[in-house]
Amino acid sequence: MITALLVCVAALVLDQLLGEPRRGHPLLLLGALAKQVEQRLNPEGSGSVGAGVLGLLLVTLPPLVLLSLIYWWLPHWLQPVWAALVLWLALGLKSLGEHGEAVALPLAAGELEPARKAVGWIVSRDTDHLDTPGVATAATESMLENGADAVFASLFWFLLAGVPGVVLHRVVNTLDALWGYRNARFNYFGRGAARLDDVLGYLPARLTALTYALLGQTRSAFTCWRKQARHWDSPNAGPVMAAGAGALGIRLGGAAPYHGQWRQRPPLGQGVAPGAGSIRGAITLVRRGVLLWLITVALVVILVNVLQWLLV
Question: What is the number of other CB atoms lying within 10 angstroms of the CB of residue 72?
Fold first, then answer.
């Protein structure tokens, strides 16, 4: 447990010092592989659920087996180093802040067009005609949800299952982002990836929602989580964003444009309309949450060691 904690700290330090690799990121290579597999197994959207499950296995198993075997083949003293490198590549804490600040900075200066362009890089909705609250809503939701997916879930699965756990979650979560759409092309083919991502994200999402609630406006966060999360399409994003919005004292959800049409989404949170401050507030919530997790794990390690000492 002490080694796992030290690996998490080392990976987070690497993330803060180096950020994401600018070239040759493994997730980009994974995306290229996923594209080739999808084109062969799902031509013109004709693939079935079974074809999607086969594609899921073909993309997931190679990195899972390879990275795990390398870990087990390494000398014992090098295994934590490899684990820290793998976890660093799975984390996205620094890039989360960079993407959020790229939206918040022009938004705070009243420069709407650059803010629209920046938020377009991190959300799937149409951003060309979003107003200031619409841009802030999109970016804040992205910070809260990606904090759960790219940061807390990676830490959770590493602490629970080591290198295989974090690799499995990160690959499946990436495939869900690529294939998990309810449209004509991916409705059947992407269903396996979407469902497995829901399963793997279930506990991390609720721990993330709890983290947001404890670090923000706690009563509001729990109220919004209890009353609003179940109305959201995603079973994991609902608790995360409802609790995050309540913790920040802002309103999220509502109407948003997708593929040329406005879609009315359930309301999340309560309080004021989002702005540049809410984007930065969400980033701060994620960063403080990481610190809380590290402190909690450290206290568990200390408690376990004290109990072991008392029982000897």
Answer: 10
pTM: 0.94
In whole angstroms, what separates CA 148 from the centre of its chain?
Answer: 4
Low-confidence residues of the chain, pLDDT below 70? none
Question: What are the C-alpha distances in Å from 186 to residues 41, 109, 203, 247?
Answer: 11, 39, 26, 34
d(CA 151, CA 86): 13
pLDDT digits (tens, 9 = 90+) for 205-238: 999 999 999 999 999 999 999 999 999 989 999 9
Report the chain's C-alpha Rg in angstroms.
20
Contact 102, 114 (CB under 8 A): no
The CA–CA distances, whole Å, from 45 to 95, 181, 261 equal 33, 12, 22
Query: Can you give the pLDDT at residue 214?
Result: 98
Centre a 10 Å sphere on the Cβ of residue 49 and count the other Cβ atoms it contains. 14
- E strand or H helix that includes residue 32: helix 26-41
**Which pLDDT value is given to residue 23?**
76
| Whole-angstrom distance, CA of residue 249 vs CA of residue 219 | 10
pLDDT, one tens digit per residue, over 145-199 is 999 999 999 999 999 999 999 999 999 999 999 998 888 888 999 999 999 999 9
Listed residue (92, 118, 90) closest to 104, CA to CA: 118
User: Domains of the chain: which residue ranges?
Assistant: 2-311
Where does residue 291 rank: exposed (0-12), middle (13-18), buried (19+ CB within 10 A)? exposed
3-state DSSP percent of the chain in helix, strand and coil, to 5: 75, 5, 20
What CA–CA distance (Å, rounded) separates 302 from 312? 16
What is the pLDDT at residue 235? Answer: 94
Backbone φ and ψ of 244, nearest 5°: -65, -45
